[in-house]
Write a structure and sequence with these properties.
With 241 residues, this protein is an all-alpha fold. The protein has three domains: 53 residues, Arc Repressor Mutant, subunit A, CATH 1.10.10; 130 residues, Tetracycline Repressor, domain 2 (Orthogonal Bundle); 34 residues, no CATH class. It is 71% helix and 0% strand. The protein contains eleven helices and no strands. The longest helix is centred in the first third of the chain and has 25 residues. The radius of gyration is 22 Å and the shape is elongated.
Length: 241
Amino acid sequence: MSSSSAAPGRGDKAEKPPMRDALVGAAFRLFLERGYEQTTVDDIVALAGVGRRSFFRYFPSKEDVVFPDHERCLADMQAFLAASADEDEPVRRVCDAARLVLRMYAENPTFSVQRYRLTKKVPGLRAYELSVVWRYERALAEFLRGRFAGRRDGTLHADVIAAAVVAAHNNALRSWLRSDGQDDAEAAVDRAMRHVQAAFGAAAAVPPGDGGPDDVVVVVSRRGAPLWRVVQEIESTLGRG
């Protein structure tokens, strides 16, 4: 995200990350002191001691400085999914991909909590955040669509599972943010992803059959799962309501 068309040199490598961090730090200091709406790009660059061109080299807009790490995280997620092996179970793989987002937030809990509080107060930032979340969901769905290609309702399965992964992850993430970053974020997300895998893992792994006399359906269930859950997964796999 901080690359430039200029030829890199020792000075560039040492200068660019601090400048980018300085812009983010200046922006959040002003947001907290004055409010988001009352802070301009000119205010940010003045406090950071750089010019407007430097700001827009790193951030297309004021909204982007609030979410400086999502482009990198999205690229990491897409690379992680692209590196999947054929034997990787697809639902587990997208759950693991969602954990990359958690790690990005957990790298700097103080900043993440400040951003959460700021976003709650500014409707425009909430809308921007939703657009970022949608891009994560699309990345997960595109991966699953490729894995479920040719299956009956494959696209539907992919989109529903991707939405479930994002919803479960965000539920756990917001719970951690509301604790001011004090709770165990990884444990919360692990618990949320287990719900997704329990709901979709076995059913998604076996596509619904056509009901012919030679169809054989195998359903895998966790030991100790309640009988109603086993029956529900069998009915889901057979395509019956």
